[in-house]
TrEMBL record:
Residues 147-297 form the Lactate/malate dehydrogenase C-terminal domain. This is Malate dehydrogenase. Belongs to the LDH/MDH superfamily. MDH type 3 family. It comes from the Bacteria. The active site is at residue 175. Keywords: NAD, Oxidoreductase, Tricarboxylic acid cycle. Catalyzes the reversible oxidation of malate to oxaloacetate. It is an enzyme of class 1 (oxidoreductase). Its EC number is 1.1.1.37. It comes from Maribacter dokdonensis. Substrate binds at residues 82, 88, 120, 151. NAD(+) binds at residues 7-12, 32, 95, 118-120.
Length: 308
């Protein structure tokens, strides 16, 4: 199992580290455009192998895609992150060019690769990869919902003063401050609905805090977060690599599911060896359906900025 991570920055390096620590891949190649940067990150990570107890071989490459040849899975994290006060949508100008070039270079050397898109605005970047590569839709997956759901569970656990392992919950919709749809009506603590423990007002606050989860961290860190994004991607890579058939909310090209067409947006999917093996249709309340529609309108507006 060979995994390529494009972008050796904060998220790319964190993702490579978690993949290595989970020890399920034989090889991880990190690639970056900055001279020597990916090689440096790879060497530093390899020097943690004896300490952290993994056998995954990590190598670095400065923009040489021949080193990524025959990858099973590739993660695209290359591109600029947002600074405090910026929206993800504002990154489209620079990141669209990068994501387009990177995906075609990956496919030249790994024609069967499954691509996970992380660069923002992620739903639009995922759509761009579809439009420019023509790959089957199961092989292009956007990462956003896995992270947003982890942030939702963190906020629910905090509000209930409960351990996070007690909590289950999911965020669907667009990966943006306004577009996320935290499914508060479906969230549970050990199978009991969270509404049994929290007031409507507190649940609304949890949802609001979840939606600005990324912006809150950008304000604190001065740049975009990396630990939880890296962990979220590594869990998705593991689900595919180990054919786990796990359910994650992921951005995927919809063709009528959830009443939406020709758009990539976060919905629950099953991840296994073929990438997205199934879109899971879950019943939504009328309010959730309306939020999903509004979220899709926002993603479509950003897609309209692409020069296709
Ligand atoms: N989808 C999500 O949930 C999520 C979460 C966090 C961050 N992000 C996004 O991920 C991206 C990366 O964030 P980061 O914090 O790691 O940024 P970063 O600046 O730390 O790293 C980005 C790296 O990409 C490299 N790069 C730029 N152009 C390249 C190219 N053409 N080929 C190869 N490498 C190239 C840069 O040299 C840099 O090392 C941003 O767009 C950010 O908004 C998405």
């Amino acid at each position: 199992m060979k995994v390529t991570v494009v972008g050796a920055g904060a998220v790319g390096a964190s993702c490579a580290e978690y993949i290595a620590i989970k020890d399920f891949a034989s090889e991880v190649v990190i690639l970056d455009i900055k001279e020597g940067y990916a090689e440096g990150k790879a060497m530093d990570l390899m020097q943690t192998a004896s300490l952290n107890g993994f056998d995954t071989k990590i190598t670095g490459s400065t923009n040489d895609y021949s080193k990524t040849a025959d990858s099973h899975i590739a993660v695209i994290t290359s591109g600029i992150p947002r600074k405090p006060g910026m929206t993800r949508e504002e990154l489209i100008g620079i990141n669209a060019g990068i994501v387009k070039t990177v995906s075609s270079s990956l496919l030249e050397h790994s024609p069967n690769v499954i691509i996970i898109v992380v660069s923002n605005p992620m739903d639009t970047m995922t759509y761009l990869v579809h439009k420019t590569t023509g790959l089957p839709k199961n092989r292009i997956i956007g990462m956003g919902g896995a992270l947003d759901s982890a942030r939702f569970k963190y906020r629910l656990a905090e509000a209930m003063e409960a351990p996070i392992s007690d909590i289950d919950g999911m965020v669907i919709g667009g990966h943006s401050d306004k577009g996320m749809v935290p499914l508060t009506s479906h969230a549970t603590r050990n199978s009991i609905r969270v509404s049994e423990f929290l007031s409507d007002e507190r649940l609304e606050q949890v949802a609001a805090d979840t939606k600005v989860g990324g912006a809150t961290l950008t304000g604190l860190l001065g740049t975009s977060a990396w630990y939880a994004p890296g962990a979220a991607v590594s869990s998705m890579v593991q689900a595919i690599a180990c054919d786990q058939k796990k359910m994650f909310p992921c951005s995927t090209l919809l063709d009528g599911e959830y009443g939406l067409k020709d758009i990539c947006i976060g919905v629950p999917v099953i991840l296994g060896k073929d990438g997205i093996e199934k879109v899971v249709d879950i019943p939504l309340s009328d309010a959730e359906k309306a939020k999903m529609k509004e979220s899709a309108a926002g993603v479509s507006k950003t897609n309209g900025l692409l020069e296709l």
